[in-house]
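ASSEMBLY PREDICTION REQUEST
Request ID: AP-0331
Submitted by: J.K., bench scientist
Number of chains: four
Total residues: 696
Priority: normal
Notes: Please return the full assembly, not individual chains.
Input sequences:
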Amino acid sequence: MTVTLADVAARAQVSPATVSRVLNGNYPVAASTRERVLKAVDELDYVLNGPASALAAATSDLIGILVNDIADPFFGIMAGAIQSEIGGPGGRAGGERLAVVCNTGGSPERELTYLTLLQRQRAAAVVLTGGAVEEGPHAAAIAAKLRKLTDAGTQVVLCGRPPVADTDAVALAFDNRGGARQLTAHLIGLGHRRLGYIAGPKERTTTRHRLEGHRQALAAAGIEDDPALTVHGRYDRRSGYEATLELLRREPGLTAVVAANDSVALGACAALRESGLRIPQDVSVAGFDDLPFSVDAVPALTTVRLPLSEAGARAGRIATGREEPPPGGLATVRGELMVRGSTGVPRG
Amino acid sequence: MTVTLADVAARAQVSPATVSRVLNGNYPVAASTRERVLKAVDELDYVLNGPASALAAATSDLIGILVNDIADPFFGIMAGAIQSEIGGPGGRAGGERLAVVCNTGGSPERELTYLTLLQRQRAAAVVLTGGAVEEGPHAAAIAAKLRKLTDAGTQVVLCGRPPVADTDAVALAFDNRGGARQLTAHLIGLGHRRLGYIAGPKERTTTRHRLEGHRQALAAAGIEDDPALTVHGRYDRRSGYEATLELLRREPGLTAVVAANDSVALGACAALRESGLRIPQDVSVAGFDDLPFSVDAVPALTTVRLPLSEAGARAGRIATGREEPPPGGLATVRGELMVRGSTGVPRG
DNA sequence: CTGTTAGCGCTTTCAG
DNA sequence: CTGAAAGCGCTAACAG
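STATUS: Completed
Returned structure:
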C-alpha cells in the first residue's frame, strides 16, 4: 500500500542503506547513484517515515516551544523567531525541524505535562519562554524534569526566563529588574511622586523582578513605597482596566501608572480616559515589552523594549546547535527605555 | 540505559503486551494488573517512546497547524483555540495531542514543504489557517498534497480558508465578502462617496473576497469604482501607513479609508494623523478582523469581527474527531460589523 | 563508495 | 483477561 524505503531501493537497484544515505545526505554517495535514487523517490512519490527513522536513529526533528499563550504577541513573536532559526540546513533529512508549540496557560502542571510529552517524542530540543513560577513543589518538579531532558541529550533553552539551578539548561534571561528601574526612574525624573503600579500574578519571576526594579527606583529617589499603590492582576488588558479603577479609588492624587506590560497599560489608558483623565496631562502611563501595537496607542506608549525577536532567534540557534551557548550558560538580555507621548510632567 | 516497556513488564511481572494495553487504555485489563503496571511505571519513571509507538501503530499524536505568521494575533488566536481543543481524552496514550505550528510566511512553497514534513511525521490531522494563494502551479500542488494526506487518513481542516475541490478536506470559510460588503455599506450609509481601499496581496483569496465585497457595496449604491482608489499592499501596519499616504496623494478629497485588516487600519490612522487629518471628522477609517487591540485604538476602530477563537476551536474538534464535520464538508463563518468611533459622517 | 545484518521499542493479531 | 510472536520502516555498524 504505502511505499517504503525498500521499494525505492528496489526501483533504484541499490540497497536500502544507500537510499537512507542519499536521503539523509550525511554520508558519501556516488553522484550517479544519488541521481538514480532521487529519481526513484520522485517517481514513487516516496515520503520518509518520520517515526521509523526517529526510532532507528534515536532522535527526532521535533523542537518543543513552551509558551503561556500563543495568542499573545509577546509569545507569538518569540515563537516565530525561534521557528525561523530552527529550520534550514544542518540537521538530518534536510535539516527540517518542526516546532511543537505548547500553550501552558502559565500553569506549572501543564508545563510539566507538556515536558513529558516532548520527552516522549524524544524532542531534539525544548525552549521554554516567559517567566516561571518560583515556588512550591512544581518548581522543583520542573527543574527535575529539565534535568532528565538534558541528561537524555535534549538541548534545553530558557528564553526570557531565569536560569534553573543544577541544570544544563541554557538561559537567556531578560533584565526585567533593570528595565523596570529605568522606567520608574524616568517617571520620577519627570517629577512624579505618587506612582501606581499594576503588577502581574504574584508567584511569577517576571512579576517579582519588574516590581523589584520599580521599588529600587523609588528607594533610590527616597520615595516611600506605599503598599496601597501596588495592585496585582493578570498580564492582560482587562486586568489593567480594573486595577487602574482600583488605584484611582485608593489614591485620587495619582499622577502616574506603571503597568506590568503593554497590554495592561492599554487597559489602564482606557480606564483613565473613561474616568475623564487626560494622558499624560493628568496621569502618565507606562508599559513594558514594546509590543507592535504600543507605538500606535494614542498617545504612543512609553515602555521598555525587549528584543523578543532577537532573543527568540538566538534561542532557536542555540537549541539547534548553530550558535555556541553563552559562557556559563547564562546571558542577560537588556531592554531599552522608549520614551513616548504617554508620559509627561505631572500636573500642578 | 533508558528504560523501556519491557523493563516495566518485567518489574510488574506481566507481558509487554499488557503494559501497552494499560498505557493505551484501549483494551480491558484487570484492575489489579493495571495497578501493578502503573506502579512499575511510576517506580521506573518510565516514559513511552513516541516514535516507536507511532511506528508500530502507524499513527501519531501530532497535529499540524499551518499559519502565515504566528506573531500576528490573527493567527495566534486561531492557533491557540485549535490547541485548546485537541488535547483532552479520546486519543491514544491519554489522548494528548501535540500541535506542530508551522510558519509559512504566506509562501505556497513553504506551505508545501511543511505539508510534506507533516506527512512524514504521519500527523493525525492538519489544520490550514488563513487565505490561500489561488493560482499557478502551487495551488494545484497543494490541492494534490491535501488529497494525498486525506487518502492516507490524515484529517485535513481548512480554517478561514475556502474549500479545495476534489478533496476530503473540511472547510470552515470566513464570509469575507459579506463582511466587507456590510462594512462599506455602513460607510456609504454615513454619506461617504470617495472611499479609498487598501487591499492585501493580490493573489490571495482573502484579499479578493474582501475587495469583491467592497465593490459589491459600491455597485449597490451606484458609486463608480475608481481604480485609483484601490491600493494593494501587505497585511501589516506599515503597508497601511504607506498606502494611505499614496491614497491621499491620489485623492485629497478622500473621506474614508477601508483597510484590508485591523493592522493595516492602524497604519492608516497613523498616516492620517501625521497628515494633520482628524479621525473621523476629516477621514473615517475601518478595519477588518476585530483583533483585541482594535477596541483600544483612539478612536476605537470600526471593523468586522471574525469569530477567530470559535472557528479555531471548532476546527480543533473536527480535526480530532470530536465534532462532526458540517454537511457537505463546508461551513461558512460570518463576521459581525462593529461600529465604533473611527467612522462618522463625512465633512462638508 | 555500497551491501548485509541487526536491531530501535512498541503494537497487535492470534491463541489460550 | 493475558501471553507469544511477528513485524512496523528505518538506520548504523561492520564488512567489503
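REVIEWER COMMENTS: Residues 119 and 188 of chain A are 48 Å apart (CA to CA).
SIGN-OFF: pending second reviewer
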